[in-house]
Design goal:
This protein is mainly beta. Helices cover 10% and strands 49% of the residues. Strand 6 (64-75) and strand 7 (78-89) form a beta hairpin.
């Protein structure tokens, strides 16, 4: 079940950041959505507190994700945590933790965690993203050449999503038995 997961964000070399530095995490895929954390580290120069944003996104046009979120800052003398409910959709995708939170540097790192428990959602991806340029992904049974770039894909998957591909790969056409096909405008 992918409805409960942890997004961890470690900022290395924490003592080197200068005022005005905003740091963003890499994108984390969980629960069918893309999650990212950002923080303004410059606030630690004005006060020992900072603010965070947790962003949720989906590639689908119509989506919604309701989740309970527990936010934890790891510190040398214990952890600080806060819980809240997060409701996001295509028009509102950011949960702001802007009360001002204590900054802790442990071994020259800031360490933050968001435990996300999705209560209800729709419109998220059901599958993890697939690298269509990597031949180790399966099931790939055709290589499409589009604009000079080779994409390794599944005929079955393309046919489900496109009547043109269904006809091309499963009708009485030469492409039916080809392992590589160039797509032109």
């Amino acid at each position: 079940n992918d409805s409960k997961f942890v997004v961890s964000f470690e900022i290395e070399d924490a003592n080197s950041y200068v005022p005005g530095t905003v740091v963003e995490s890499a994108v984390f895929n969980g629960g069918g959505f893309e999650w990212k954390v950002s923080t303004d580290l410059s606030s630690r120069f004005r006060s020992p507190y900072t603010k965070f944003l947790l962003a949720c996104e989906s590639k689908n046009g119509d989506w919604k994700c309701d989740a309970n979120v527990e936010f934890v800052i790891h510190g040398e003398q214990g952890n600080y945590s806060e819980k809240r409910q997060f409701i996001s959709d295509e028009s509102h995708s950011v949960c702001s933790f802007d009360n001002g939170y204590p900054m802790h540097i442990v071994d020259n790192k800031h360490i933050f965690e968001f435990t996300i428990n999705i209560i209800s959602s729709y419109g998220g991806s059901e599958h993890s993203p697939i690298d269509l340029t990597n031949s180790s992904n399966s099931p790939n049974n055709v290589t499409l050449i589009i604009g000079g770039k080779k994409l390794l894909v599944s005929k079955d998957y393309l046919a489900i999503n496109s009547p043109v591909f269904a006809t091309m790969f499963f009708g009485d056409f030469a492409e039916k038995n080809k392992e590589e096909e160039e797509i032109k405008d």
